[in-house]
Amino acid sequence: xxxxxxxxxxxxxxxxxxxxxxxxxxxxxxxxxxxxxxxxxxxxxxxxxxxxxxxxxxxxxxxxxxxxxxxxxxxxxxxxxxxxxxxxxxxxxxxxxxxxxxxxxxxxxxxxxxxxxxxxxxxxxxxxxxxxxxxxxxxxxxxxxxxxxxxxxxxxxxxxxxxxxxxxxxxxxxxxxxxxxxxxxxxxxxxxxxxxxxxxxxxxxxxxxxxxxxxx
Length: 216
What we know:
By secondary structure, the chain is mainly beta. Helices cover 8% and strands 47% of the residues.
């Protein structure tokens, strides 16, 4: 009986000590000895792809940069020269006091004044696959191009620009059909007839091959 009494007393003491009230009244910004770290968020305002005519004013819509529900200062890398035709990239970045950062991006295309007479719309064949791609003009220097990879992708489109002379590009954008896309190594030749163009189509699963198309 004495041993059982000692055991019962030990259990009772353990229960009493375990029921001591824990103080959760931590200093602001901490949990116990740990500091709470809030991470920034950055989201663009306005359109991700903006297209303007050469000489037109450009106003950057900026971004919403937030830290723990409050506005946060951000920096912008890159700039836009609205008087010079070209494709410009802007990146917006904000950081918290601990050095963790978040960013977002925008593409701005300045369409030159020398392309108004150009019309690259039509059907183009990619000889390597025997599959066509269709260009539809939607504005001066602006096209909706179906199947830009000249392979699987019929009915899927991206925005293509002819921003100066015969210079073309798929500006960095997020396509509803392909996701994040762009192009590189672009060229467009009017002569000798028929017109041809080439580019590397940067999209998920498309690789880095140079793709060449001939107007039909």
